[in-house]
Amino acid sequence: MRIKYNGCIIESSSIDLKSFRLLHDEDADIRYVNGFSACDDYLLQDGDEVVLIKRGRKPSSETLEHLMASRHTPKVHEQMKASTVGIAGVGGLGSNAVLALARMGVGRLVIVDFDVVEPSNLNRQAYFIEHLGLLKVDAMKELVSKVNPYIVVECHHVKVDEKNAVSLFEGCDVVIEAFDDPKSKAMLVSELLTHCKMPIVAGSGMAGTLSSNTIETTRRFDRLYLVGDLVTGAKEHMGLMAPRVMVASAHQANMAVRLILGEKET
Q: pTM value?
């Protein structure tokens, strides 16, 4: 039978995971079949995806990418790797969404931001002290390379406006809107809905320390999804803080993944 082993298709006569492991990597102490942890007595079937990992042993570069995706549902990695996601703004929402998408194995990320990393960003954004003063797009590219070096990161250090919005993001399968300014949010959504065909996942309302359960993903139009509670914008005595911002950014990343996989929010 045919087994996908650590990313490669092989022919195998092994009937269970133990005999397969003893033949291919007897020292492996982490075993996954079809994205789920499996015991040695698991009975293999034609088409199974098997991953064997030895704790503490660094895998070869040829197999690392497949091992990183070993907990994905089968076929998800291939779909993610073939996709392109645009992120408009890499502040609190965008920077955390980028890292979630990098861990999912999105093949290409188009990152657009005009700002630099400064101290007040560190309470909710994905950057570190060592990134202070760097362009956000450059710092983000470095972080992505440390999470998943197999991703193509296209950086644009520019302010998005009506003249460049379409050209920056055309070719993306999904665009995540992660701006701070309401006018910039509205401009981007309007431009992309009017001139492009990809879905957009926008954010609105995640300030303060209210319940995380008030942050939702809703479908507003055929190609527009909104994430947030739609109420709590940043203002005096209602700051932007990591927990709710990260909940919202995870919603955005998850919706982008769902759209890539052909799912939709009803």
A: 0.91
Residues 66-91: pLDDT tens digits?
Answer: 899 888 888 899 999 999 999 999 99
Which tops the pLDDT comparison, 121 or 240? 121
Average per-residue pLDDT in the chain? 94
Under the banding of pLDDT at 50, 70 and 90, the label for residue 109 is very high
Q: What is the per-residue pLDDT for 74?
A: 81
* Residue 52 falls in which region: left (phi positive, over 0), alpha (psi -120 to 50) or beta: beta
Residue-range domain boundaries for the chain: 2-71, 76-261
Q: In what order do the strands lie in the sheet with 200-203?
A: 152-156, 108-112, 84-88, 174-177, 200-203, 224-228, 216-221
- Is the domain spanning 76-261 CATH 3.40.50.720? The answer is yes
Sequence-distant (6+) residues with CB within 8 A of 216 are 227, 228, 229, 251
Tokens 């789920």 locate to: 36
How far is C-alpha 138 from the chain's CA centre?
18
215, 229 contact by CB (below 8 A):
yes
CATH of domain 2-71: 3.10.20
DSSP designation for 15: S
CA dist., res. 83 & res. 258, Å (int):
12
